[in-house]
Amino acid sequence: MTRFPRPVREIENxxxxxxDGCRLAARIWLPEDAEADPVPAILEYLPYRKxxxxxxxxxxxxxxxxxxxxxxxxxDMRGSGESDDVLEDEYLKQEQDDALEVLxxxxxxxxxxxxxxxIGISWGGFNGLQVAARxxxxxxxxxxxxxxxxxxADDVHYMGxxxxxxxxxWASTMFGIMTNPPDPALVGExxxxxxxxxxxxxxxxxxxxxxxxxxxxxxxxxxxxxxxGAITCPVYAVGGWGDGYSNAIPRLxxxxxxxxxxxxxxxxxxxxxxxxxxPRIGFLQECLRWWDQWLKGRETGIMDEPMLRAWMxxxxxxxxxxxxxxxxxxxxASWPSARIDAERxxxxxxxxxxxxxxxxxxxxxxxQHTGLGSGRWCPYGVGADFPSDQREDDGKSLVxxxxxxxxxxxxxxxxxxxxxxxxxxxxxxVAVRLxxxxxxxxxxxxxxxxxNLTHRDSDEAPAPLEPGHRYRVAVKLNDIAHRFPAxxxxxxxxxTSYWPIAWPSPETFTLTLHSGTSSLLLPVRPPRAExxxxxxxxxxxxxxxxxxxxxxxxxxxxxxxxDHATGETVMTTxxxxxxxxxxxxxxxxxxxxxxxxxxxxxxxxxxVITKSYTLxxxxxxxxxxxxxxxxxxxxxxxxxxxxxxxxxEDDNLVCSRAWTTTIPRDLV
Length: 668
Prior knowledge:
This protein is of the alpha+beta class. The protein folds into 3 domains: 8-161 and 213-332, Rossmann fold, CATH 3.40.50.1820; 341-525, Jelly Rolls; 548-664.
C-alpha cells in the first residue's frame, strides 16, 4: 500500500536530550499536518541501529501507521546507533529511566495529543512491558511481540535451569553490534570519539550472563512476572509457535488483570506482516484497531473478540525450513481456558498408554551429540533453522509411542511430563520431546522442554542430586497448538543431552527412569464450532520498502560433519548478509557471522563453541571494520571464556582488546 489517508513526512534524525545531557537519536514519521491536527504517538525503542540495522523493517511498518494518523518514533537507546554514551547491558534501570524521559518528550511535542503507545519485537517487546510496569502517565497501551515476562526461565540464557547455547550466541551478536560507530553524516566529527569510547568500554556480556546461573536479583529485574499487577495499561501480546518466546503469551494472559489480548501464529521471530512460515496476516491493520481503541478512544470491536487467537498447526513433513505451515485459526474467550483438560498418558515400558502398566526401570545415556535435528532455539524463518526429522535423535533416546490414533487429537497449551528418575551423578539434565509420528516413521517435533535436575524444586536454590536416589520431577514443555491426525502416533522421546541447544552436564551420567509411574499430561482441546466463524485477518499490507543497491548477494550455509573415527561432530554456520548500499544516504554495510559447535560422542567437556562477527561500514573514503570473536569451553567445574575485539579505520588498527575469564559452574 503506497497511498495513506494522511500524507506522511519523515524527520530522518532528531536528538532527544535527556536530563543528564545524554542525547538519544530518533527517526520520526508523522502526518504532514500533525502540528495543526495532533495525533497519538507510537514509540519503538531499541539498540539495533535505526540508521541501517532496522531501517528495512522500519520502512515497511512505521510510515504505514503514520499515514493512518499516528506519529511513529523510532529511538536508538543509549550507547547505540547515533545516541551518546555506552550500552552496558540489556534491560538496565537506566534503559527504563531513559524511556520515561523519551515518553515525556514525545507527549509534549506539538504534533502529539499526549497519548503514547509502545510497540516492539524481542528487545523492544521486553522493554515495552518493563516500561509499562513503571506506569508512566503518557503510556496508554502496549503491543509486545516475541518477548518474555521472565528473563531467567524464558529467554536466550537458561531453560529449565540448563545453560542455553544461545546465551553465547546472542552475546556474540551484541558484541559485534555494539562495536559499530555512529554515522558521521548525522553526528559530525564527534563520531570517532564516540566510537572509541564504545570500543574501549564495551562489556563482555557473555561473562555477565554466564556468571548468573541461578534465578537471582539480576534476572528478576525486568521480569514483569515478578509483579504482574505493576502493569496497568492494556497489553496485546503477539508471537509465533516457530519463535523462541511463545510461552510468555499464555502467561501474560493469565497473569495480567488489565485489558489484554494474545495472538500466536505459525511465525518465527519476525513481525507477522512479513514473517515466515506463513500465512502472513494484515498485522498493521490489527495494530491500528488496537491503537485506535486505546489511543484514540474509538470502539473498534477488538475487545469484543476472544482473548486468545492461535494457529492450530497440522502435521507437516518435517523440514528445516517452511514457507508456510498448514493449519487453521482457533480461539479461546479467556485464558486459562476451562475447555482444555489435562489428559494423562502413562509412560509404560511398552509405550505410551492411557493406563499405567507395571513399574519397570529403564536406563539411558545418550551420545553427547543427541539433538542434531533440533534446529535453532529461536528460529528466524531464514535458512535451515527449524527442527528436521527426529528419527536420528529418537534413536538416541528413550522412546514411548502411543498406538495409532483412532481419531485426531488436538492440543493447546503446555504439555507436562512427570518423571520418576534417578541419576548416578550429582548434576544431570533431561531433554523431553513431544513428537508426531507418521505411519511411515517420519517424526515431527511438536514441542520440547529441558530440565536441569538440580533445579527440580527451585531455580533460585538448586540442590545437587543424591546419586541413585529416586526423584519425581515435572518437565514443562513449550506451549503449542497442534493437531495429531488419526493414524499417527504420539511419541515422547527422552535424552540426557540436547546439543547444540543446551550446554552438556559436567559429567557423563546414566539416567534411570521408572516407567509406569511416569506420565504425560496433554492439554487436549475439544474442537470449538465457533472457530469456523472467526473473521479472517485481512491480507498483509506494508509501506513501500526502502531503496537499496545490492553490491554483493548474501548467503547462509549450515554444514554438519562427523568424524566416525573420533566420534566428534562439528556444525559450521556462516550467515553472510552480503553488501548493501542504502540509496537514501549512501551508507554501505556488510555483516558476516560465523559459528562452530564442536562436541565428541562421549565426553561432555569436549564441547566448544566459537563465534565470530565481521562488520564493515563505509561511505566514500570513510571505511571502518570490526572483528569480534568469542569462544566457550568447559571443565567439570568451570566455564572457560575467551574473547577478542579488533577495530580498524581505513585498515589501520585503532583498538585491540582481549578477554580470558574463568567462571565456576554452579550446578549447571
